[in-house]
Amino acid sequence: MKPRRPWRGLADVELGTAEWVDCFNNQRLHTAIGDIPPYEHETSYYAHHQPKPTVGTNA
């Protein structure tokens, strides 16, 4: 993703960085995980791998 205009200050750099991270994690297709976005893969993983309850805890 290219910046819309030249960055003029720190706020523009922060916004550009946040946009890049969002694109990298939520929009790009990753070939190593079946051409799906990393966020989608992570969501699917946790939906199918629930943590096992801890035995012997006192609540």
Give a written overview of the molecule.
With 59 residues, the protein is mostly helical. It has a domain at 10-48. It has 2 helices and no strands. It has helices at 10-26, 38-48. The protein is elongated and about 55 Å long.
In short, what is this structure?
The protein is built from two helices and no strands. It has 59 residues and is mainly alpha-helical.
Share of β-strand residues: under 5%
Instruction: Give, in order, the helices and strands.
Output: HH
The low-confidence runs, each spanning 5 or more residues with pLDDT under 50, are: none
Which class of secondary structure composition applies to the elements?
A: mainly alpha
Rg over alpha carbons: 19 Å
First-to-last CA distance:
49 Å
Mean pLDDT metric = 85
What's the tally of helices? 2
Shape, per Cα inertia axes: elongated
The description of the largest β-sheet is:
none
Instruction: Count the beta strands.
Output: 0
Give the helices and strands, then pairings.
Elements: H1 10-26, H2 38-48
Search tags:
59 residues; mainly alpha; 47% helix; 0% strand; elongated
